[in-house]
Amino acid sequence: MDKYRVKPGAKVRLSKWDPDDQSEFKGDKEQGRAKVAKINDDLEALQDLLYGEHKHKVLVVLQAMDTAGKDGVIRSVFDGVNPQGVRVAAFKAPSSVELDHDYLWRVHQQAPGKGEMVIFNRSHYEDVLVVRVHNLAPKEVWSRRYEHINAFEKLLADEGTTILKFFLHIDKDEQAARLQARLDDPEKHWKFAVGDLAERKLWDQYTDAYNDAIEQTSTPWAPWYIVPANRKWYRDLVISTVLVKTLKDLKMKFPENKDDLSKVVIE
Ligand code: AMP
Ligand code: MG
């Protein structure tokens, strides 16, 4: 899945990344789903180790245009993991107290502790995305943030956090189809936000903002992956494969018991 990782310093043009790509898997949707379920068993075991070892911290950042599937990834990729060691932090428009502080203030509080895996559903990247597109801060303010973000993520990494950042890449036609599906199905009306239509009109501005954000902040310590996401099963397959590979590379071990258990007799 290395082909989806953005090399530090590489120029990013999302228009050059194919949201329909499925070249890393030889199989159809059904086989892809089965593979995701298998990888999910590995993820469960690895997350158990992460929690038991109580050493590493894992941060997964999800960013995407509306309907690209952040919620779907959380549901399917993390299906069955132990809720005791996994947490989702969703970042909405900041409250007035949050706005009174620097933009990383609320984010740092949600960073994972030892043994924990935290999924950011949106993140500090909104502060160079929606903030830029909607002019919520002047350019001289948001343009300095890439540097802060790299330094912040370096701090987390130096202190034991493994960071993975995924941009779920769909195209505008796929978004139209998904919005239409929400409109057509009364069970999905709750997911339909009329405000998303205004955001859709800003597709090109968001694309520019994502190009810059990904280009400026894909670092060795916190790489971005651009995940082809027009197909939900393939999106899930890419993310779970990268996650499991990264966790395996941590070479985690359950801690030894301090006591000599060979002498223990349970009466
Ligand atoms: P949703 O993910 O659909 O629940 O929407 C959350 C909303 O919060 C989105 O419209 C985001 O753009 C918005 N949001 C998240 N972070 C920020 C931020 N830092 N500044 C302004 N809006 C934000
Ligand atoms: Mg939404």
Describe the model.
- By secondary structure, the chain is α/β, with parallel strands linked by helices.
- It has a single domain, classed as 3-Layer(aba) Sandwich (Rossmann fold).
- The protein contains eleven helices and five strands; from the N terminus they run αβαβααβαααβαααβα.
- The protein has a five-stranded parallel β-sheet, sandwiched between helices.
- α1 packs parallel to α11 (232-248) and α2 crosses α11 (232-248).
- The model has no long low-confidence stretch (mean pLDDT 97).
- Residues 66, 193, 196 line the site of magnesium ion.
- Adenosine monophosphate binds next to α5.
Query: What's the helix-strand series?
Result: HEHEHHEHHHEHHHEH
- Level of helix content? 40-55%
The span between the termini is: 52 Å
The major pleated sheet works out as: 5 strands, parallel
Low-pLDDT parts are none
What's the arrangement of strands in the largest beta sheet?
Answer: 2-3-1-4-5
Total strands? 5
Write down the overall geometry. Answer: globular
What is the strand content? 5-15%
Helix segment tally: 11
Average pLDDT, rounded to a whole number, is 97
CATH homologous group name: P-loop containing nucleotide triphosphate hydrolases
Total number of domains: 1
* Rg calculated over all Cα atoms: 20 Å
CATH architecture: 3-Layer(aba) Sandwich
Q: Which CATH class is shown?
A: Alpha Beta
| CATH fold naming | Rossmann fold
Structural class, by secondary structure, is alpha/beta
